[in-house]
Each structure stands twice: as C-alpha cells, then as structure tokens.
Design goal:
Blueprint: E1 3-8, H1 16-23, E2 28-36, E3 43-53, H2 55-62, E4 66-67, E5 70-71, E6 73-76
Antiparallel strand pairs: 1-3, 1-6, 2-3, 4-5
Length: about 90
Amino acid sequence: MAKNVYVGNLSFNTTEEGLRSLFAQYGTVDTVKVVTDRDTGRSRGFGFVEMSDGADAAIQALNGKELDGRALKVNEAKPREPREPRQRRW
C-alpha cells in the first residue's frame, strides 16, 4: 500500500523533480506534488510525496536534512480535516 509523506519547510526554488530524485534514493516514488498558491503560482513551501515502498526509511533519513538551504520537515501525511462550508456574504 502506498504511503503519503508530507514535506515541509521547502525552499521556493525546490521543484517536483528535485523532490522526486531525493526521495527515489529510498524507494519507489509514485507521485510528487509541490503545493502552489493559486493566485501567484509560487510554491507555498510544502508538498507531498507518495511512495509505494521505502516511505518509512525516507522519513527517518530526510527529516531535518537540508535541501536548497532549508532543513526539511518530513513525516507521514495526515488525512485532510473536513472543513465547514464558507458562508457567503452578500
């Protein structure tokens, strides 16, 4: 079963390809997503890596490791919390 990994404290210069090559050293990477701001397209400083195997080893090895001048925060992603629908004000 694939495991989703949260990667925080990313540099604004970190690319999905850079994350893929970093995590591929520890196992099979299925998908990589650097989350971007919908208005500016700029990285929001975090992303997700889905791995079919090697996720636990990657979390252990990469948490606190420096990438592009920033110390990464790496842990297993938690399911998204349900949010209340936003109220429209007319």
